[in-house]
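quick one, 239 residues, struct below
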Amino acid sequence: MNGNSNYRFKHCCHPSNTLVPIQPMAPPMPYPPVLPLLTPPPPPPPLYPFNQHHFNNGYYWKNGYSYPGVNQQLMTNQENVVWQQRANDGIIKNENKKLKEKDRQIEELLAKVASLEKMAQENAELRAKLHEFGDMEVKKQDLELREFNLEISELKRAEADSLMEQLEESEKCRMKAEEMVRMWESCYYHDVEKILKQNEDKLQAQRASDETFWKRQLDQMARKHEEDKTENDVVYIEK
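---
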């Protein structure tokens, strides 16, 4: 491995002596902005000497806090220091985590580089073997190509024969279907004519029956009219 070179062998399976440049690594990502530290609380004012608090009207500090107030201020200052320490610990822990992640990425990149170098060496060995058996491989591929073309020709002939058989079978089926359609049409129209004739006979019989009925009704009405007329004439003559 040459550290001053930006070129590596590209991983491939065909013989080639072309060197492919590897893209340089991207610059590292900038660290996130560090939060400013919290402003520490102001230092307490100096205490008066022991047994001399009466000089400040009974208060230990000059700002007017009594003894309970001093304890409260001390507790507040201590809590501020604890929270500041926790914030600093969190920032340090986050930075350590980022550094570990960077180390892991660097190790992965080194492993990939080593793998690429190993692959380049294996590819060089494979190229040498391919050069040795190149003529034999070309002859083998030529023979396989001829066999493939022969198989394709045989398949085309077999497919053409199969298509011809299918066309003949389809033509036979079509002729049978046309014959069946003709037979069906003949039977259908014969039945239709028969049914129409039967209906016509029924209509003729019904029409004749209706004519006979209405003729009888008309004859009865005419006779009744004549009888009524005769009766009216007789009554008129008698008067």
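The two ends are 158 Å apart (CA to CA).
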